[in-house]
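During the reporting period the student researcher (J.K.) took over the structure-prediction task from the postdoctoral fellow and processed the backlog of single-chain submissions. One of the processed entries is reproduced below for the supervisory committee.
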Amino acid sequence: MVVVKNAEGRDEFLGVCRKHGISKLPDGRKVEREEQVMRAETERLQALFIVFNEGGSFMTMAEGDEEPIMLDLVDSYLVTRAAGDSFWLFHKMIGYNNGWQHAHTIKVVSWSQDDVWFLDLVDDRGRRFHIELIMPETEPDLVETWRRWQAYRARHREGFAQIDLTSTCALLWGGRHEAAVDGERLNCF
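J.K. obtained the following structure tokens:
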């Protein structure tokens, strides 16, 4: 019997089962059902980030007892997968078109949300992240920066579509797949 003890192993194991046409796990559960559960959980968690993706947000990070530091405005958040009690969150800071140093993935092992405008995360390294929706009343400069960033993205839509596709391919499939943007086939890496 195969025993999978962690979320990464579970996700990988389901993929191997699917690849080899195995439809049931050793304990009798169906592979397809387990994949559906993981997809549903990923979608449920992604819904937490809708307000932040649409309205703009900033993120701070703190390690240990240190004071939080402002990371920057975040362009978008994407839950790439959820398994067990954790999920992987890919976030792109504004300016991510200038290099990979502006895009990060963290493994979230704990989160809380006391208000729809705030979200607190803890990653597998014990770092604390605070996400906060930007508000015109309290952060007018950040709101203006967000507005300018959105206008810039809109003016360069095609370039951002290719960057987004490439980064998503790299994240989800190891960068070895082809995909299409507006009918044009692109190789991811």
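The committee noted the following: Residues 31-47 form the longest helix (17 residues).
J.K. will present the remaining backlog at the next meeting.
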